[in-house]
Design goal:
Chain lengths: 410, 112
């Protein structure tokens, strides 16, 4: 009983830390975009966390953890249904690490993250209405169904050599990243991003907020990975925090160095993306790695960011915040790294990781395509040219984020 | 009475302000401006290099009696210069009348 109390307190702290990540995402996204779209971005992020929790309560939790099921799709019914003991009180034998309620809320905080990743990639040009519809379907149905395949005990968990994703390099970050990629392809680049086929810089308007956002995300990752131990077991929890932080640090430093060698300037926004790249990379195997493994995995993630950002730019995929590089590319790398480094490394595991990546890639990209393509053909997903130039704040919301400050033209 | 307007580097503003204080000019207006000029500023953002000719400067506007004109201009020329392209410009024009709103008096005395 005492142990359950301690475990449960830790899990609730982690839940709060994961909740805090939504502020981190919001600040990073507004920092790396233009002033005139700030309110729109804050609105999207606020919508995602609120509707995300409600949907997870309504259907998500029971889609993701359906109990016994066929491994692909199961649903244990609408709403929450706490297990009771003989006296009619909450059944505390539910799990030794947490109560039913903690389980729901911790998982619920994760769920909204997948849509938040998309929000950054489509910023400054997506219509708010269709984005809200997309969020509802993606967070309410796609994410939990995909999650059930491994975390819910589905086919990727019951394979001969089970796929492994500790805290969601694939289940959360790539699921969001694939949708971001599909959305960016369907939306097209922002006006002014490409001139004569060459990518142009559209600098973000508030780098201090972007920095705060990334450091808040790092703090949140203490809960994201630390809570994925699913108890306060001292060895595993402390190791996970060490591997998480070392990978973040290595990712940041290597990304900064590589971007300096390539472009001869010390670009803070790349440094920040490198930290996130390191964090996403270690997330799949944070409990399997030694500190040295973690540094290598994070460092490679940081280097990947520089090349991925540049490649995505050259492919005419306009991703204002680097979400595809951070969440999709590093998410895949982190998932593969489980087969290369750490306790599970080996050929069979590597193949299982590939199967997992491919399954999630196909399902997420196809689902995102069907939702967004339908929205594009019916409501349209992109704002008018006039609206894009004048800013989404004024047109989608009729408000400004900074009413008493001077607006800078872009 | 004259109006002396100057566009100067922001980095030189405190030196110019001090030089103006030293010759007895204690009130004037200023604001930040963005302009276009010959100078190009090179930047790199997320691996994309770009340059901008948008230049940030500070604009100061001083209304003085005629006998202060020479000293004011000298103070700005001395304190505002770095010798590099982009130090800015000074414009001098005549002012036909000045009123002090509180006392309703007008003329040269209002500038003392």
């Amino acid at each position: 009983m005492e142990l359950l109390t301690i475990n449960n307190v830790w899990m609730m702290i982690c839940t709060a830390l994961v909740f805090f990540m939504h502020l981190g995402f919001a600040l990073l996204e507004i920092g790396l975009t233009r002033q005139k779209n700030t309110l729109n971005i804050l609105f999207k992020n606020t919508f995602i966390i609120t509707i995300g929790l409600l949907l997870y309560c309504l259907v998500g939790f029971n889609l993701m953890y359906p109990g016994e099921f066929n491994g692909f799709f199961g649903f244990a019914g609408f709403g929450l249904d706490s297990p009771l003991n003989a006296e009619g009180a909450l059944d505390l034998t539910y799990n030794e690490g947490y109560t039913y309620w903690t389980d729901f809320l911790f998982q619920g905080m994760f769920a909204a993250t997948a849509a938040t990743i998309v929000s950054g990639a489509v910023a400054e040009r997506i219509k708010i209405g269709p984005f809200m519809i997309f969020t509802i379907i993606y967070v309410g149905l796609v994410y939990p169904i995909a999650g059930s395949w491994f975390w819910g005990g589905g086919f990727l968990k019951t394979m001969e050599t089970p796929f492994y994703d500790f805290a969601g390099s694939t289940l959360v970050h790539s699921v969001g990243g694939w949708a971001a990629l599909v959305a960016v392809c369907l939306l097209g680049a922002r006006i002014g991003k490409y001139k004569d086929g060459k990518p142009q810089a559209i600098p973000g308007h508030n780098i201090p907020l972007a920095t705060a956002g990334v450091l808040i995300l790092w703090l949140g990752w203490f809960g994201f990975n630390g809570g994925s131990v699913l108890s306060a077991e001292p060895g595993a929890t402390s190791l996970v925090l060490v591997t998480t932080c070392l990978a973040a640090a290595a990712g940041g430093v290597v990304c900064m160095l590589v971007s300096y060698l390539m472009y001869k300037n010390l670009d803070l926004t790349m440094f920040l993306n490198g930290i996130l790249g390191g964090l996403v990379s270690i997330t799949a195997g944070a409990d399997l790695m030694t500190p040295t493994d973690a540094i290598i995995v994070g460092a490679i993630g940081g280097a990947i960011i520089v090349f991925a950002v540049s490649l995505i730019d050259k492919l005419k995929l306009d991703d204002p915040v680097g979400a595809i590089a951070v969440h999709l590319v590093c998410g895949m790398w982190g998932t593969l790294a489980v087969g290369v480094f750490g306790a599970l490394a080996g050929g069979a595991q590597f193949v299982s990781q590939l199967i997992g990546i491919a399954s999630y890639g196909l399902f997420s990209a196809a689902a995102a395509f069907i939702i967004l393509f339908t929205l594009k053909k019916t409501m349209g997903i992109r704002v008018s040219e006039k609206e894009e130039i004048e800013g989404l704040d004024a047109h989608e919301h009729g408000m400004e984020a900074y009413p008493n400050f001077r607006m800078n033209e872009h | 009475m004259k109006k002396v307007e100057a566009i100067i580097r922001k980095s030189k503003f405190s030196a110019v302000k001090k030089a103006l204080h030293e010759i007895g000019i204690n009130f004037f207006s200023y604001w930040d401006v963005t302009g276009l000029g010959n100078e190009k500023e090179g930047h790199v953002y997320r691996g994309v290099s770009y340059s901008t000719s948008d230049i940030q400067r500070r604009y100061i506007s001083i209304v003085i009696n005629d006998d202060f004109e020479e000293a004011t201009i000298k103070a700005i020329l001395d304190a505002g210069a770095t010798g590099e392209v982009g130090d800015g410009k000074i414009f001098v024009s005549d002012i036909s009348e000045v009123y002090r709103i509180r006392t309703r008096e007008k003329g040269a005395n209002t500038l003392k």
